[in-house]
Amino acid sequence: MLYWIIPVAVTVILVFFVVGIYNGLVRRRKEVDNAWAQIDVQLKRRCDLIPNLLETVKGYAAHEAGVLEKVTQARSAAMAARGTTEKIAAETSLGGALRSLMVQVEAYPELKANQNFLALQEELTSTENRIGFARQHYNDSATNYNTAIALFPAVIFAGMFGFRAAELWQITDAAEREVPKIKF
Amino acid sequence: MPERRTFRDLIAANKRNSVLLMLLMFAFFLVLGGVLGGAFLVPPDRLWEGVAAGLGVGGVAAAIFGLLGWYGGTGTLMAFHGARKIRKQDSPQLFNVVEEVAIAAGVPMPNVYIMDEAAPNAFATGTSPDNASVAVTTGLLEKLDRNELQGVIAHEIGHIRNFDIRYSMLMAMLAGGLVILSEVLLRASFFRSNRRSSSNRGGGNQLQLVLVLVGIVLAILAPIITAIIQLAMSRQREYLADASAVEFTRNPEGLAGALAKLGGDKTPMECSNATESMFIVSPKVGLRGGADDLFSTHPPIRERIKRLMALR
Questions:
Q1: Averaged over B136-155, what is the pLDDT?
Q2: pTM for this one?
Q3: Is B97 touching A (CB cutoff 8 A)?
Q4: Which CATH number fits domain A5-177: 1.10.10.60, 1.20.1440.20, 3.40.50.720, 3.40.50.970?
Q5: Which residues contact B78 (CB under 8 A, 6 or more apart)?
Q6: Do B103 and A31 touch (CB under 8 A)?
Q7: What is the pLDDT averaged over residues B59-76?
């Protein structure tokens, strides 16, 4: 008799089932990793933008030296930061320093008429948006992934295959919550 | 129980509908080919040879048309609307906004096109998020501020992420193909009746006459059928793309402000029926009205703004 076929069929179905769950989790984790990499790309973009911005501002608003210095320091700290927690803190303070710089330069009409500065301002606005959106996308995909590994029956295999919950990028600084309103 | 569908379900449904639509297109080409072949290709006594030849021609035409649309659809649509592809230095702000929203949506950066057109409007097209394009008019760039532009682009990228672009590209192809085919059918039937009266071979196969009649009825019905399919899906998609825009930007005011400006704008714009449903607001100024018009491809703007503001 072919009774042996029943356990074999059940095993095959189970294997396919587990493989399906496993692949689904891998896909979601990959999305989380990609989203994290995107944040890094945008943070680097911001750091690359700063020297040009400072150079342009210096020409018009030399006696804002204190604010300029703060931005420079925050940038160095951000570039030197290692580890997620340190990095988040450094980048948050760089964002704050840049925001206060952009508020200070509101008082310089000649600067705001400078084409080069306007172009940089657009780049900075866009970069801040990108960082925000990249973080938002990271948090969304991390939440999706965290939910997926916590749901039954995936939760049985998640631990077995080493799927650990992803950490969300929480906003710690209250000022950071405010979307920078740069007027044109 | 209220229907609760995630964007994932929606995307799956869109892909499914796209396949159905392709099958429908193929079947329609076959039917038309058969009818045409039987009615006009051969003398009445060899009717079935004509039908068979027509089926073959219809099948080949459908395959060619489908491939051309799938691989050349974006180029054709852009050329049709006079859109040119831009690089970052041509319009840094537009380019930046598209890139930002693409990051928020987690899709690859689409190609960006500009149309020289005073009326503010925009559309997206392509076959998948990996191969997508966004086009905006120069009027849109002039009349909207950065936040509003971001809202409009987010709506378009919503169409891209939700795979609406694939569906609406096929829809535009179907609509365009049907317009061409119904023209051909009508012309052929006139030609046929002229030849018939002059040569007057008499007799005439009853079945062939029936096919001629079917051809004429199809020619008249085809545009109406397309319109009905288009309307069935189009309005719901607009609401969903609006909701996706808010999902990306978390800022309903941007898109709401843009819609208010677009709705209030009365600059006329040329557009064909085949592509009307692709735009963020209907290019036909008269159809943006307040009433929920049965024959409108878009929901009334007031209602869209109301739903947007309820998303907060």
A1: 94
A2: 0.80
A3: yes
A4: 1.20.1440.20
A5: B84, B85, B113, B125, B133, B135
A6: no
A7: 83
